[in-house]
Amino acid sequence: MPTFQRLAVVGAGLMAVAAAAMIALPATAFAISGTATITAGTLTFVAPASVAFAATLSGVDQSVTTTQTFDVHDATGSGAGWNITATSTTFTSGSHTLATTAVTEAVAPADTCDASTTCTLATTTVTYPYTLPAATTAPTATKIFNASANTGLGDQSAVSTMALDVPASTTAGTYTSTWTYSLVSAP
After folding, report:
1. Is residue 154 part of a domain?
2. Could you give the percent of the chain with pLDDT greater than 90?
3. Listed residue (133, 65, 144, 145) closest to 101, CA to CA
4. Does 88 score more than 50 pLDDT?
5. Tell me, what's the pLDDT at 55?
6. Helix or strand run (H / E) with residue 50
7. Does any domain span residue 142?
8. How many domains, in total, are found in the chain?
9. Is 67 part of a structural domain of the chain?
10. Residue 11 within a domain
11. E-strand spans in the chain?
12. Model confidence over 90-119: pLDDT tens digits?
């Protein structure tokens, strides 16, 4: 066999042995740890700037409604829950007043996740119908809506439908009232 052919056969054999040696080597594995630091954000909300009812006296008792939206942002990551409290002064027009029980909410607010967000909708334990507390001086606030523990996480909006009772004997006029809302951590 010529030298060139012998070298080619020996070279091919060495390559086969080298390839077999590479295949026979065990693979090396590395275990590493990963961390993700997630920092708590804040609990905030935007309440309606005002509320407006309109009624035309008709000689019969009536109830007029309006809606208002609360936008709650719970980025605390705690799952502690939250509640919105409300109180008000009596609706008055000069020396005329409406009843301190004139404003009610018949059913729980309609709650939805804000656009382009994922949230855990609030599960409320407030009993409805709800009556907004009112007096000459605003009384102690009561829960109007809440999120039980492990609910209400993320950005969501709750739309309340409030009703104002207007008796047939009401004097015409512009009645005003001051409403106060507060957001509190804990259901």
Report:
1. yes
2. 83
3. 133
4. yes
5. 97
6. none
7. yes
8. 1
9. yes
10. no
11. 43-46, 62-74, 82-89, 92-93, 96-97, 103-105, 110-113, 130-131, 134-135, 142-147, 154-166, 179-185
12. 999 999 999 999 999 999 999 999 999 999
